[in-house]
Structures are given as C-alpha cells and as structure tokens.
Amino acid sequence: MKITRMHGAGGTVMQKLIKETILGNLENTSVNGGIGLESLDDASTIPLGDKEIVFTVDGHTVKPIFFPGGDIGRISVCGTVNDLSVMGATPIALSLSIILPEGFDIENLDKIMKSINEACKEAEVSVITGDTKVSNVDDIIISSAGIGIVGLGNAVRDSGMKEGDVIIVSGNIGEHGLTILLTREGFEFESELKSDVAPINGLVKSVLDAGFKINAMKDPTRGGLADSLNEMAEKSGLGILIHEDKLPISNEVQFIGEALGIDPLTVANEGKVVMAVRAEDSEKILEILKIHPLGKNAKIIGTVTSEHKGVLMETLVGKRIVDTPLGDPIPRVC
Amino acid sequence: MKITRMHGAGGTVMQKLIKETILGNLENTSVNGGIGLESLDDASTIPLGDKEIVFTVDGHTVKPIFFPGGDIGRISVCGTVNDLSVMGATPIALSLSIILPEGFDIENLDKIMKSINEACKEAEVSVITGDTKVSNVDDIIISSAGIGIVGLGNAVRDSGMKEGDVIIVSGNIGEHGLTILLTREGFEFESELKSDVAPINGLVKSVLDAGFKINAMKDPTRGGLADSLNEMAEKSGLGILIHEDKLPISNEVQFIGEALGIDPLTVANEGKVVMAVRAEDSEKILEILKIHPLGKNAKIIGTVTSEHKGVLMETLVGKRIVDTPLGDPIPRVC
Ligand SMILES: Nc1ncnc2c1ncn2[C@@H]1O[C@H](COP(=O)(O)OP(=O)(O)OP(=O)(O)O)[C@@H](O)[C@H]1O
Ligand SMILES: Nc1ncnc2c1ncn2[C@@H]1O[C@H](COP(=O)(O)OP(=O)(O)OP(=O)(O)O)[C@@H](O)[C@H]1O
Ligand SMILES: [Mg+2]
Ligand SMILES: [Mg+2]
Ligand SMILES: [Mg+2]
Ligand SMILES: [Mg+2]
Ligand SMILES: [Mg+2]
Ligand SMILES: [Mg+2]
C-alpha cells in the first residue's frame, strides 16, 4: 500500500493510518497517567504537581506559503496555540523545526520569521527552541510543537459532551480553506476572501475565566467542522443535530463553495473553535464570545442528543447525514 | 541571498542564519526566567514549581532512511532524547510530526514506527502527540520535539565549563556520519561500520546519580566533536586543549576518513556525549561511564584552559587549531 494525498488530509483515510500504522505500533503512549496518544485528542497531557503540561505538534506544508490573511509562519504559531487552547490550556512555549529547500530566498525566511514574531506576541507565547535542516522539499516546511499549562484535572477533552449540551461555533467557517484554494489555482473570482488564521487562546480564556465549564472543544482544522463534530459525537457515543440555517457562513464562502462544488463544512478553519456547553450556560457563553473580535460571528448551531449517533443536519428539505469526510478536499491547506 | 546546503549543516554558516534571521526576528524567546532560545543551548527550560520543563526539537531528513545501525525512526527518538539528556534532564515525552511523500510505502512507515517503538522503550520515553502530512518531499521527514524534567536550577548548560576542567567523550567518534556517507554513495569499502545512534539518557544518568557535577555537556551531532568543543569553548570564554592520540577513533573510521579526506572530528555522532568535569572527579566519572555499554570506549581527551581561546589539538608535530567547521561535510546526515 502506498501513501496518497488523502493520508495527510485529516479525514477517515488519515485516521485509519494513524490508528493502525502509527498508534498500533507504539507501546509507550502516555506519561504519569495523563491524557495519552490513544485518546487522539488535540493534545496530550503530563501531570506534574498541581498542574498538567499540555503537549501538541502540527507540521505545516501549506501552499502557497503567503496567502491573503496570513502565511506559513502565522499558521505555524496559531495551529499549535489553538490545539493547546482547545484543551483549556494556557499556551506558553513553541518549538520551530524548519526544513528549507536549497535555493530558498532568505528574504522570504525573514518575512516568515517576522510573521511568527507578530503571531507570538498576539498569542503571548515564546519560541524557545528550534532546528533547521535543508532538504529536498519543494517549499519551506515548519513543524511547531507547543507546551501549555492547565490545572490538574482541568483539561477539556474532545470526548466530553453530554446529552442536552448546546454546540457553539465561534465564527464563520470555510474561510481558510477556500482562500488557499483560490490563491493557489489563480481563479478569476474577484474576492475579498481571506484566511481566518488567528490564535484563539484569548477567546477561549474569556469563557473559562468567566467561570463557565466547556464539556468538549476542538479547533475545526483539516476536514472542517464536519470532521470535528463527527469526532466529538463518536468519542462521546452521542449524536449532534445541527441546523443549516444557523451555520455562520459568509455569502462569499457560500457562493464560492457552490461555484466550486466544495462544502464549506469540510474545509479547514485556522481561527475557530467549536464547543459543547450546558444548555443553561449557552446564551451567556455566546454573549461572552461575541465581545471578542474573533468571536463576533459566534453562533449556536445545534444540540447534543442520544436519539441518533453521528451528525445530522436539519435543512429546508429535511435531515441529512453530515459524514466525516474521507479527507479535506483541499490539499496542502495547512 | 539563497539557502544552500550549508545552512542546514550545523556549522558557522547555519549558526549565522539562526542568529540573524531566526533569533534576530524573535522578541519572545524565554518563559518564566528559564533558559531561553538566546542561549542557543541543546534545549531550553521552563521553571514550574520545584522543577524545570526542558523542551527541544530536531527535524530529521537523513538519507538513506534505513542504514546500518539504525533508521530515521531511531534517530528521531535518540536525537531528541539526547538533547534533553545533555541538559541533565530526564526525557519523558516526544511528539512526532511526520511528512510523507505521495507514493511512500506504508510498509516502510510500519518498519519506521516499529523502530521508533523500540527506541522509545530503550529510552523509557512515550510518544504522546503527533501530526501527519503528505507533501512534495523526496522522502519521509520526521520532526520530533521532546519534553524532559530537571530539578529547578539543576539544568546543565553547554556554557558552564571552568578552567582546569577535564574533557571526556563517551566513545568512538565519527561512526554515524561515515556510515551514512558509505551507505549513500555505494562505496566499495568492505565495511562493518555502523551508526552509533542510541539514547544516552541512561549513560548520563549513571554519572549524575553517582552524585557528580557535570559543568558543561553537549551531544556532538552535526559538525561533530569539533563543533561541540568550539561551542563549549566560545560560550565559556575559555579554551580547550585536546590530544590527538587520546581521541577515541576506531581504526576503521580512521582509515575511511583518511581515504575520503574527511576529518572524523567534524562529522555527526548520534549516541555520544562530551562533558567538562572537575579534574578531581574525572577518573571516577570515566570509570562509571565505562561500566555502561554505551560508554565502554569513553576517554579523557583534554583539559580546559584560560591560556588560549578556542580549541587546540596537540599532535605528533605540534599544536594545531581545531576550527568550527563551516558545516558538516556530509549532507543530510540526520
Ligand atoms: N505521526 C503521528 N504520530 C503520532 N500521533 C499522531 C500522528 N499524526 C497524528 N497523530 C495524532 O492523531 C490525532 C489527530 O491528529 P490531527 O493532526 O488530525 O489533529 P489536529 O492537530 O487537531 O488537526 P490538524 O492537524 O488538522 O490541525 C492527534 O491526537 C495526534 O496527536
Ligand atoms: N529554526 C529554528 N528556530 C529557532 N531556533 C532554532 C532553529 N534552528 C536552530 N535553533 C536553535 O539553535 C541552537 C542550535 O541548534 P542545533 O540544531 O544546531 O542544535 P542541536 O539540536 O543540539 O544539534 P543537531 O540539530 O545537530 O542535533 C539551538 O538552541 C536551537 O534551539
Ligand atoms: Mg485540533
Ligand atoms: Mg492542529
Ligand atoms: Mg537541532
Ligand atoms: Mg545537541
Ligand atoms: Mg540535536
Ligand atoms: Mg495535527
């Protein structure tokens, strides 16, 4: 069997590879009773005293490396910060492993590093270690691991939603993926569309600091909201019912998605969070999210139920199944 | 200015890129008063309670990915474990960011994962998080970040050697680099040479557990022992005098090095440690090292002096300067 693009595209094909070939071969997958690799959550944890160290990593091969709204440097910081944030952790430190092709412009590396610096200041994290290699790659690759801290036992899992919970998404979906596609293919759309890439730690913190409990949380990256909701449903053993007319989607994304035949539910976001919260807290949490610039389009999109498994969507013409995509339809999206 | 191979080869060319373009652009480079990126040590630290979290990363693009003595999986574990070990830390957790080319054999990924598993068991570390992407690369790339723990204030720096200290290297040098070169180029040497790739945490621990203080320590990877000794000298403001006839070099490495015109002092090791220790402890530390299978060829190779800067080597025909190499002579060595 050979690797195909789909093995790196964040859907069922990749999940199978990770479960069988990667996780299936590893015996040491957790430390000190913390959340281990077998949870396949956004990050894992290591209990230490009255805290847990939260640890995650993402590799970035986005093409093109500069795009409206961001670049590979900004994604490298935000992707990792966001995986820590959806664990309820405070992100503190990043590592940067950079792979460069021969002939790469040092001026472009300089631009990328400046962008990394800006994103780090925005997210209040530090780059404390790194590595640099030159290899046979078509463009720069940046792999950023990250460390965050959370109180012992306070990590938010992606498996924790409860029957009756309300599902909130923090803003318009599909913008990152469609921006990458438009930029790369040189489509002739006149478009103002840009990537949503941003660090969501401040946004998540505003909810947690107000004393609300978040039962489950993910950042809907590769595979989009469809992938994240399915994972939350599967891991909790419950179902999710969302409402098409409540999904925050800009007219532009709607139009471009339809024109290209790509469902915005399945494409990557890089500055969004989806959470399951208690019904009685949901309106207050929505208000808090809307105060933050990154949450101004936040919406309640559905509820958690034990009446079915998986994800269903109420549409004008009845309910349809929202499946886990085989993979994100846009290659090299992040 | 364009990136060349040398920018990823671990010598002065790479150091300049890191200092100017990478470190030079970053404002947030340390956390909580810990050892930060500006130290350019093997790893950085984050104080937390009565401990320090130690954090490091290495990207691996070694070619070929399977070679006598190891493979890219084993290097990915050991490289990161070793950077944590030379900080005096106990390595506990790794992340694995894997970049795959389309068409890569899943059976080979399976072999690599099995090798990662074996190395993790040897080093007593766990893989707790990872990421998988498919991109335009000529072979698999693995970037492994790692977390270790050390008592507050107990991290061993690469800058800490003192006048009168003795320099010990834990075994034969040059084996990894020359193995890679021989394997890649299909040279016609009949050779038993294999890579030394191994986790050195147990070896270092045996010295620290015996209560000895190590003043400075590094793992002599890209750029070899020449690079590490120069860095230790420069950062301490002192000089090192080593003795050619005391360097642990196998006859085979000596012969191949001479045949190919490559100085074993400048090529990568993947299972060695070089340390500066108090003269009065040096014989006892040497004995402890020699008990461990990975330390059986350990040798005292020199001393620390204030009489000159940099690294000098006493040879049959007098002293010569051992410079920091521009870069490791063997590309894609790790
Ligand atoms: N190469 C790998 N080695 C070990 N674990 C992996 C590897 N690739 C993925 N995983 C694990 O699989 C789970 C899913 O990974 P995935 O990358 O899809 O999550 P994510 O980072 O939240 O999403 P994205 O990468 O799209 O931002 C995570 O728990 C991750 O740690
Ligand atoms: N891309 C990068 N971003 C941030 N810091 C970097 C980067 N590349 C290297 N560094 C820092 O520069 C210093 C030297 O890195 P280097 O990779 O040479 O160390 P090493 O890992 O000990 O050696 P090797 O990679 O040969 O095993 C380290 O402190 C490292 O954190
Ligand atoms: Mg995630
Ligand atoms: Mg992620
Ligand atoms: Mg390195
Ligand atoms: Mg090192
Ligand atoms: Mg290293
Ligand atoms: Mg990931």
TrEMBL record, chains A, B:
Protein's name according to its UniProt entry: Hydrogenase expression/formation protein HypE
One Pfam family it belongs to: AIRS
Organism: Methanococcus vannielii (strain ATCC 35089 / DSM 1224 / JCM 13029 / OCM 148 / SB)
Domain PurM-like C-terminal, residue spans: 162-312
An individual GO BP term: protein maturation
PANTHER family per the UniProt record, alphabetical: CARBAMOYL DEHYDRATASE HYPE, HYDROGENASE ISOENZYMES FORMATION PROTEIN HYPE
Annotated signal peptide: none
Domain PurM-like N-terminal: from-to ranges: 41-150
